[in-house]
Every structure is written in structure tokens, then in C-alpha cells.
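Postdoc handover notes: sequence design on the structure in folder B. Input C-alpha cells:
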């Protein structure tokens, strides 16, 4: 077993003001997406500008925050939402949903595409390789905060999280998600997007691979205590929400290869 590093989740504390590492990780994710977006824009043959990238990151941030919070309340605390509708405003209590954030980003990008008169799918194809940066940093934030830990295990790299009331040796599933949803997903999408691809292909690959990785890692992650398993003694809410992503991604990849219509923005060629 490996000792949990037990990093203080509060990075900076000035009087009543406490800045948590989780929030800093969000900022790092948005900053990384902005820098990489500008890098891609420089190699887009004039299809993208720095101003457009800045606006895209702003729209995306709003989509992530609003969609993530609303999605968490809807997907994971629906009974409480019905009983206490205003609970959705209690952001200090925590609770963000990736799938809700994804819906929020999609809606935000629809508005962004209309503003700049771009094809919505071209926008999503450009954005997709930027997203794993935030996903990876977010999972590191979960790990530092000692939340969303994994299931009980006896593997040699198991950890006991101080926030776990049962104090069991568990999978550090946050790090699994960092590796899969962050590092590996970014590597795949970056390699795919380095050369022109048919429209839908890059964003469809994001849907398919994220869905696959999330389904796999959920076998090691402890399900939400107030939800548990949805069915069969193993199906979790995260898997249930990710299966449509995987299927939609595969269907769009097939459609993309059949259409062979090149998306507008190109990634770096070197």
C-alpha cells in the first residue's frame, strides 16, 4: 500500500478567504486550453484568430460551470432538487458533473458558432483536443481533495484516503482518470487532429474514447453512496451516462468517414 500524500486541499488562506486546489486546477485547465487553442489557431491557415479562441474559452468555461452544476443536481441529486430547488445554487457544497458540463459546453458552442458564423461541428472539432487538459487537472484536484476515491482493493498501490469514514485501502481512481481522461485522451486527440480529418471525426473520437475510458474506470471507482449501483450489481450512474457517448461517438465516426468532408480548422503540422 502507498501512503496518501495528504496535501492540504486549501492552497492559499488569507483570513476568511480560502483558495482550494480544486479551483486552481480548473484555472490551470482553462489556461492550458487557451494556450493550446492559440497554438492551433496559428496553424489554421487564418480560420481562427486569438480573439475567437479567447471567446471560445470564455463560452466554454461558462458552459462547464453552469452545465456541470446543473447536471450534478439533475443526474445525481434529483430528489433533493425536487425537494429543494434552490439547492442548485449552493455551489460551496461542491458537486460537478462531467456529463452536465458537456451538455453546457455544447449549448455554449452553439451560441459561439452563431456569433462567429462558423459551422458548429468545425467548432467542436477544434475544441475537442483542448478539453482533456481540463479533465486531467480536474481529476488531480479530486485526488488532492481526497474525493471520488475508488473501491476497496488489495493492490500494492492502494491508498487510504483521510476523507474516507471507513478508512479502507482503495484504488486511487482519480489518478486512473487523470491518466485515461487526461493524458491518454489528449495524446489520442492531438495525434488525430495534427492532419486534416473529415468533419465530425475529431469530436466524435472525443465522445467515443471518453465514453470508453469512463466506462472502464467506473469499475474501479466507488459509486456515489446515495445512488449505488443502478443495475446488475455493477452498473453505475457514470457508466449509464457514458454509454450513449460511446455509441454516439462510434456512429459519428462512421458517418464522418462516409462523408469525407474536411473540417475547417487544421492543427499544427509539425
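Designed sequence:
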Amino acid at each position: 500500500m502507498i501512503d496518501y500524500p495528504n496535501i492540504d486541499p486549501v492552497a492559499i488562506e488569507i483570513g476568511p478567504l480560502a483558495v482550494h486546489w480544486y479551483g486552481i486546477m480548473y484555472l490551470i485547465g482553462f489556461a492550458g486550453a487557451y494556450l493550446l487553442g492559440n497554438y492551433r489557431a496559428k496553424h489554421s491557415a487564418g480560420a481562427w484568430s486569438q480573439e475567437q479562441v479567447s471567446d471560445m474559452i470564455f463560452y466554454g468555461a461558462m458552459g462547464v460551470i453552469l452545465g456541470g452544476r446543473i447536471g450534478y443536481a439533475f443526474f445525481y441529486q434529483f430528489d433533493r432538487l425536487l425537494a429543494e430547488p434552490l439547492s442548485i445554487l449552493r455551489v460551496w457544497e461542491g458537486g460537478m458533473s462531467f456529463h452536465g458540463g458537456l451538455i453546457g459546453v455544447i449549448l455554449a458552442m452553439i451560441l459561439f458558432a452563431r456569433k462567429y458564423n462558423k459551422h458548429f461541428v468545425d467548432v467542436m472539432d477544434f475544441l475537442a483536443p483542448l478539453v482533456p487538459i481540463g479533465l486531467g487537472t480536474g481529476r488531480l484536484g479530486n485526488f488532492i481533495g481526497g474525493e471520488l476515491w475508488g473501491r476497496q482493493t488489495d493492490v500494492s498501490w492502494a491508498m487510504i484516503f483521510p476523507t474516507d469514514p471507513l478508512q479502507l485501502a482503495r484504488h486511487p481512481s482519480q489518478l486512473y482518470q487523470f491518466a485515461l481522461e487526461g493524458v491518454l485522451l489528449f495524446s489520442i486527440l492531438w495525434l488525430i487532429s495534427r492532419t486534416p480529418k473529415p468533419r465530425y471525426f475529431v469530436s466524435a473520437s472525443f465522445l467515443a474514447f471518453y465514453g470508453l475510458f469512463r466506462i472502464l474506470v467506473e469499475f474501479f471507482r466507488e459509486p456515489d453512496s446515495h445512488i449505488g449501483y443502478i443495475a446488475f450489481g455493477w452498473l453505475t450512474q457514470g457508466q449509464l451516462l457514458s454509454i450513449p457517448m460511446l455509441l454516439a461517438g462510434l456512429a459519428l465516426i462512421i458517418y464522418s468517414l462516409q462523408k469525407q468532408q474536411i473540417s475547417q480548422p487544421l492543427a499544427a503540422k509539425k
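Context for whoever picks this up: The longest strand covers residues 10-14. Don't rerun without checking with the PI first.
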